[in-house]
Each structure stands twice: as C-alpha cells, then as structure tokens.
Amino acid sequence: MSDSQALRDSFALVGKSGDEVPRYFYSYLFLIAPEVRPMFPVAMGAQRDRLVAALGRIVAEADDPDRLLPYLRQLGRDHRKFQVVAQHYEAVGQALLATLAYFLGEAWTPELQHGWTEAYTLVARTMVEAAEDDARVNPPWWNGEVVQIEPRGFDLAVITLRLDRPMAYRAGQSVMVETPTLPSTWRSFTPANATRADGIVEFHVRAVDGGLVSPALVYGLRRGDVLRLGAPVGGRLTLQASGGRDLVLIAGGTGLAPMRALVEEIAWRGPARGVDLFVGARDARGLYDQQVLRQLAEANPWLRVTPLVGTDAGTVDNRSLAGPVLRAAHWHGRSFYVCGSPSMVSATVRDLAGAGVSHDLLHFEEDAR
After folding, report:
1. Is residue 89 part of a domain?
2. Residue 166, preceding peptide bond in cis (omega within 30° of 0)
3. Are residues 122 and 196 in the same domain?
C-alpha cells in the first residue's frame, strides 16, 4: 500500500476520537445505503469494536502482504454470511473516506485521500475476489439442525447439530453462529469435534452473564431448531502450527472444546504424537466432559488427561495454570496450546514463556464469550 506510515499516522489521529468514529461511520453508511442496515444487529456495540479492530489490523500490516492478504481473504469469505455483495463495498468505502475526512479536518489532504482510496480499493478487491472464489465451492452459510441438547450445569450445555452439508474445517478453527431468535447477531464458537462426513458438529456453550447469543442457546434452544453457521476461520490452535511435535493442551472451562477437537483429529488422522491434556475447573462440577475424555484416554494410549481442580487450578477464570502443568508434564520441545478465559490464558502464557517455553511453541486463543 502506498505510504503506509501516513495511513497509520492518520488512523492513530482519528482514533483519539474514540467511540465517536465507528458511530459516525455506521450512521453515514446507513444513511447512504439503508438497505444494508438489516445485515447488522440491533445492538451495534460489538460490531463497532470489530470495525475498529479490523481497520487497525489492516493499517498495522499494510507493509506485510504475507499476513495482510490472507486476513483480507478470510474476511471476504466470512462476510458472505451477511449476504454482502460487491456493490456494498462501494458504500462502505464512501462511508470510510467521509469518516476520515470528518475527524481529520484540515489534516485530510488530497495526498492522504488518494492513499486511503488506493488502500481501500485493494482491501475491497481482495475481499470480493475471495468471496467469489469461495462461492464456487461453499454456501454463504450452513444450516445446522439441533439434534441434541445436554445440560451440563445450570449455565452450560453441549449442543449437537447436524449440518445440511458437510463443512470442512481444521480442529481448532471457529465458526460464527446465528440463532433464529437473534437475526444478524453472530457469535464465535469452536467445534468440540473434528470434521465429520456426516455433518455432525458439537458446541460447548456457557451462558455469559449479560450476553445475547450464548444465553439464547443454553436456555432457549430446542431440538429441531435451525442455526446458521458461517465459514470456519482462524488457525492459531490448529495442528498445522505444531510441526508434528508432542503436545501439551491446557483448557479452562469451555476452552476444552478446541482441545477435544485436536485430540479427535490426531486419533482419526494422525500424525501420532504424545498428548497431555490438562483441564482446569473451579470444582468437580466444572469437569463437565469427563466421561468423553475418559473414553478418549482409554482408546488412545498416547493421550493422558489430568484434571486441575480447586487449589491445583487456583481460580481458573483468572489464574495461571502453568505451575501445575509444568510440574506434571515433560514439556521440553513440546508445543503448548492454551484456551480459556482471557485472564487465564494471558497469565498462563506469560508464565510458560517465563519458564522458558519459546514463543514459537505457544499457541493460544481466548475462549469466545
């Protein structure tokens, strides 16, 4: 992108106006293209945060096409579930330039306008081309019929869907889910199973206090209901990142879901490797999937499952699990995967790095909430 430093500097200047920036952007967009309003949720707070995060990443990686272009292609594929088409990108570009001009004022020069126009043109073209390529092989979304709901506590359920067509994803990837009671409101979940030819997908869902989608799924979903699922995204927790090494998997709460999918993928497709899975919980009731994990360990001698409960786990939501893990597992040269609450993941990764685990062996993601 031309003069990417100028883009970063101007974006940083605009960012000083905080939440007013995405509010102005969406107000302008809905004014000039009212037909796109139904594509967005009624409550726009999370959507505004996603916009700022996406723009921030784009300008930060403007000089790194090897990272930026795959991200843009993923965005293009993922936006198909909103029924975004090529002409919508023109309105978005117009709203973006108007927003930048408004907040930059006299600093909005013809040179800067040219730079942002050129940058957005590249972004839009990459996303549109990726969406068109994806449309040749995949639907814009998958329909998943609820075939089973298993309460595993007052606020947690294991939900099994049967998709209308198989979805090819790698264990550790996530998908966006929309429930019929909350149209245009999507939330990210990670399947707890490896991809299956019969289209079965299992989700572990905890109802988040103050959330929208997760309580609707845990408390309001019924057998026979149909959910929409977006295209699989992400790659931080996939096995491709581990280079065939033995693994140490660390899960807190429903962060267990991607770890179980990883174990299934190894069991079904290999390559063979040793796996230590640590499952943190506040108390024994938090070990909601122990029966399945026990069966997996019995069937696969390379898998060892260790629960971390109570004092062993500290307070799982906000404490590091690195201590008991490093004491219990031979970890030198192994790849570490961590998923759970943001504070647990942050503390655990920090302590693993402090103990000498190299950065390239640390793979982590916060459990979607």
Report:
1. yes
2. no
3. no
| Number of other residues whose CB lies within 10 A of the CB of residue 259 | 28
Q: Would you say residue 311 has pLDDT above 60? A: no
What are 198-223's pLDDT values in tens digits? 999 999 999 988 888 999 999 999 99
Domain end marker among 101, 135, 169: 135
In degrees and rounded to multiples of 5, residue 168 shows phi and psi of -90, 115
The domain of 167 spans 142-229
Q: Can you give the CATH number for the domain in which 167 is found?
A: 2.40.30.10
> Do residues 39 and 83 share a domain?
yes
Residues 278, 299 within the same domain:
yes
pLDDT tens digits, residue range 156-176? 999 999 999 989 999 999 999
Distance (Å, rounded) from C-alpha 335 to C-alpha 262?
13
Closest CA to 286 of 191, 159, 188, 156: 156
Q: How many CB atoms lie within 10 A of CB 333?
A: 10
pLDDT of residue 230: 92
Query: What one-letter code names the amino acid at 155?
Result: D
Does 73 share its domain with 124? yes
pTM of the model: 0.81
Top-confidence residue, 14 or 50:
14
Residue 176: φ, ψ to 5°: -90, 140
Q: Exposed/middle/buried for 269, CB within 10 Å: 0-12, 13-18, 19+?
A: exposed
What is the pLDDT confidence band of residue 331, given thresholds at 50, 70 and 90?
Answer: confident
Amino acid identity, position 181: T
CATH number at residue 256: 3.40.50.80
| Per-residue pLDDT tens over the stretch 232-285 | 988 889 987 677 899 999 999 999 999 999 999 999 988 889 999 999 988 888
DSSP alpha helix (H) spans, the chain: 4-15, 20-32, 45-60, 65-78, 86-104, 110-135, 213-220, 256-269, 290-299, 322-328, 342-354
Instruction: Kindly write down the DSSP assignment for every residue of 133-179, as one continuous string.
Output: HHHTTS-SSEEEEEEEEEE-STTEEEEEEEESS-----TT-BEEEE-
Pairing between β-strand 362-366 and β-strand 303-309 as defined by DSSP bridges: unpaired
Phi and psi angles of residue 306, each rounded to the nearest 5 degrees, phi first:
-125, 115
Question: What's the rounded Cα separation, in Å, for the pair 276 and 129?
Answer: 41
Q: What is the largest CA-CA distance in the chain?
A: 68
